[in-house]
Specification:
With 195 residues, the protein is of the alpha/beta class. The chain has eight helices and five strands, in the order αβαβααβαβααβα. The longest helix has 20 residues.
Length: 195
C-alpha cells in the first residue's frame, strides 16, 4: 500500500528535551507471566523515578487494551499488533525525553525481536521470572482458574506458550525479591546505562 505521507522534522530535538527534562529517554520493558508482578513493579519503579525528578510514564497491558487496542483480540496476529502499537507509542515518549515503563506479557521471542527492532538501543528488557505455580497462587484476576477450566482460550502459561527471553538486560525473581527491591535494582541499572 502506498501512502502519500512525508515525515516532518521539528526544530526541538530529543537532546533538547532530555536536557530540559533532565531525563534520558529509555524504555524499560517488563515481560513475564500474568501474575508475575510486572504491574506492581512498574508502579514502584514509576514512583521511584518520579521521586528522583525524572519524567516518567508507564504503559500497562490492561490499560492499553481498554483504550488504544480495544479493537484487538488475543490471536497471535492481534497480540503482535498490540505490541507493535505499544512499541511505537513508547518510542514517541522516549523521543520526548521520557523514561517509559512498559508492562506487557509479550510471551514470544519473535514478539520481543519486533519490539527490539522498533526501539533499538533505547530498549531495556527485564524478565520478571516468576514460576507458573507462584503466578497461579497469586492469580489476582482469577484468570488462571478460568483458563484451566477452558473458559479463556490461548492463555499464556496454560494453553499458550511463554518463551523465556534469551538475553534480557536483567532477570528479576519476585519469589525472592519484593517489588520495591526489584524496582530499585531496575532503576539502578537504568542509571548505569545512561552514564
Amino acid at each position: 500500500m502506498t501512502h502519500n505521507t512525508t515525515k516532518h522534522n521539528f526544530s526541538l530535538t530529543r537532546a533538547n528535551k532530555e536536557k530540559t527534562h533532565e531525563t534520558t529517554g529509555r524504555v524499560i520493558w517488563l515481560t513475564g507471566l500474568s501474575g508475575s508482578g510486572k504491574s506492581t513493579i512498574a508502579n514502584e519503579l514509576e514512583k521511584l523515578a518520579f521521586s528522583d525528578n525524572k519524567v516518567v510514564k508507564t504503559l500497562d497491558g490492561d490499560n492499553f487494551r481498554l483504550k488504544l487496542c480495544k479493537d484487538l483480540g488475543f490471536s497471535q496476529e492481534d497480540r503482535l499488533e498490540n505490541l507493535r502499537r505499544v512499541s511505537e507509542v513508547a518510542k514517541l515518549f522516549v523521543e520526548n525525553g521520557t523514561l517509559t515503563i512498559c508492562s506487557f506479557i509479550s510471551p514470544l521471542i519473535s514478539q520481543r525481536e519486533m519490539i527490539k527492532e522498533i526501539l533499538a538501543d533505547d530498549l531495556i528488557l527485564i524478565h520478571i521470572d516468576t514460576d507458573l505455580e507462584t503466578c497461579k497462587s497469586r492469580d489476582p484476576k482469577g484468570l488462571y482458574i478460568k483458563a484451566i477450566k477452558g473458559e479463556i482460550k490461548d492463555f499464556t502459561g496454560v494453553s499458550s506458550p511463554y518463551e523465556t527471553p534469551n538475553n534480557p538486560n536483567l532477570t528479576i525473581n519476585t519469589t525472592t525479591m519484593s517489588a520495591e527491591e526489584a524496582a530499585q535494582k531496575i532503576y539502578i541499572y537504568y542509571l548505569e546505562t545512561i552514564k
